[in-house]
Every structure is written in C-alpha cells, then in structure tokens.
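Try this one yourself first.
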C-alpha cells in the first residue's frame, strides 16, 4: 500500500496565489513536488521550501482553483517525494531593469499596452510610470533576457498607423 500525504493545510490564500503547508513532507526531493504541481493546468510557478514544509503556488485562477490544487496534493504518493535531502537554496531575486520608453509620459494608453505586452511572457512583471517615462521590468531567474524585453518595448513604443505616424528608423 502506498501512503499518501495527510491533509495539506492552506497557510495563505490570495487570488492566483496559494501557500500550502505539507506536514507529512519530509523536506526531501522538493524538485519532484514542484514538478508534480507544475504539470497541473494553470500553474505558473511553484516554490517548495524544505525547511518550512511549505509550497508556494502561483496559478491562473481561471484555469484551476484552490480545491483542485489541494486535492492533487492529497493524492500525491509520499514515495514520489522520497529521495536525498536537498539543501535549501534562497530564491534568486528577480532581475530588475528600468527602461525609458519614448512618449510614455504623453500617452497613458501606451503605458497600458507596454505592461500588458510584457506580462504576457512567463516570469515577467512590469510596471509603467508616466511620471518618469520608464518601465520597471522584473525578470525571474532563467527567463527572458533584458535585450528581448527591450526589443518588445521598441516595437510597442513605435507609433502604429492607429497610434500616430510611423517612426523614422535611422
């Protein structure tokens, strides 16, 4: 008979974000736990902490929900988590890049388009400031490079026929 993890407990729940405590998890093989959750539809990011026995799950609330995630963890065989104890590694801070976007101060709609376009990429958070005319782009480790995001911004900040005259590329 395969033992299953007893009652995962919700530590904190916000729309699209769930922190779950797994009392039966021995803190080993966190990568298998993370991989199990990442395979679920709508899961964007998973971070398991072997010291606290907590798992942080970020997900698309339109594609999955809290009961589905908890149910999946309840059905997870403990032998999936068996393995050598992993040394906890502090999560890498996101790389932050501030990029000046021409015309951002004059066009609030451009700010919204820029943020929307950048946040379509996994692991990217963006905020635009019409006060400074810059966009703060946060890239999770291993995700797209700043150069790729700059190219996205260049395409967006170039006026299109519906948003003004084409920019002279010299």
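Now uncover the answer:
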């Amino acid at each position: 008979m395969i033992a299953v993890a007893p009652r995962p407990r919700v530590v904190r729940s916000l729309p699209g974000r769930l922190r779950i405590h797994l009392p039966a998890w021995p803190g080993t093989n966190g990568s298998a736990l993370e991989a199990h959750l990442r395979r679920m539809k709508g899961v964007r990011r998973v971070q398991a902490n072997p010291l606290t026995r907590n798992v942080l799950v970020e997900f698309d609330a339109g594609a999955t929900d809290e009961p589905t995630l908890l149910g999946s963890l309840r059905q997870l065989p403990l032998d999936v988590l068996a393995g050598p104890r992993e040394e906890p590694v502090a999560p890498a801070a996101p790389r932050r890049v501030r990029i000046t976007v021409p015309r951002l101060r004059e066009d609030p709609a451009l700010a919204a388009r820029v943020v929307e376009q950048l946040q379509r990429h996994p692991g990217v958070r963006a905020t635009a400031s019409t006060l400074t005319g810059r966009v703060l782009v946060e890239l999770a480790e291993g995700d797209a490079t700043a150069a790729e995001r700059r190219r996205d911004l260049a395409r967006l900040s170039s006026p299109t026929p519906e948003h003004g005259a084409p920019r002279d590329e010299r």
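Discussion: The radius of gyration is 21 Å. The chain has five helices and seven strands.
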